[in-house]
Structure formats: structure tokens, C-alpha cells
Amino acid sequence: MNGRTPLTCANVGDEDSIADRCVMRLRIEAIRALGIPAVLRVYQGLRHGFGLDRCTAAEGWIDEAATFWKRPRGRQQAQQSPASIMS
Predict the structure, then answer these.
(1) Exposed site from 2, 27, 37, 66, fewest CB < 10 Å?
(2) pLDDT class for 49, splitting at 50, 70, 90?
């Protein structure tokens, strides 16, 4: 990761055996430490590859990600309103 790392929105299930939520949390924290907007959402009861996942805890994740990616970019913005890490 470096200053060219893009803003990052990560979505994982708490039962994901491929994208482990603890590893993802560390990655998101490292990205945020560079001043880059990043968010992690962990969904209860889901494994890797939940796709659109209608009628689950992840329903709507695509709209949330799109909203995140449409926000203004830049280091100053990241410092003024840091993205949250949720679990």
C-alpha cells in the first residue's frame, strides 16, 4: 500500500474463510493510516461470495459501496470525516 492506493470499501461475512475479517480489518486500518478513505463492513452469518445477497444482513451493500465511492476523494477529506470500521 502507498499513496496511490485507491479508496477502499470492503465487505466480508463473519464466516468468510477466504477474506478473513481480522486480516481485512488490519488492511483497512493500514489504508486509513495513509489518509485514504476506507471502510470495512462485516456481515453476520455470511461466507465468502455473498453477491447481491437479498434477504440477508448484506442486503443493500452494493448501494452503500456506490455511495462511499462517490464521496469526494483526497487525503484532506479522509482526515475530516474518516470512514468507520464496523463489525
Answers:
(1) 2
(2) confident
Alpha-carbon span 10 to 47, nearest angstrom: 14
The type of residue at 74 is: G
Mind listing the pLDDT tens digit for each residue in 72-84? Answer: 665 444 433 333 4
Say if CB 12 and CB 58 are below 8 A apart: no
Q: What is the pLDDT of residue 76?
A: 41
> Distance between CA atoms of 77 and 33, rounded to whole angstroms?
13
56-59: long-range contacts, CB 8 A cutoff, minimum separation 24: 58/11, 58/13
pTM, two decimals, is 0.70
| Burial letters 4-35, b for 16+ CB under 10 A, else e | eeebbbbbbbeebeeeebeebbebbeebbeee
Give the pLDDT of residue 63: 87
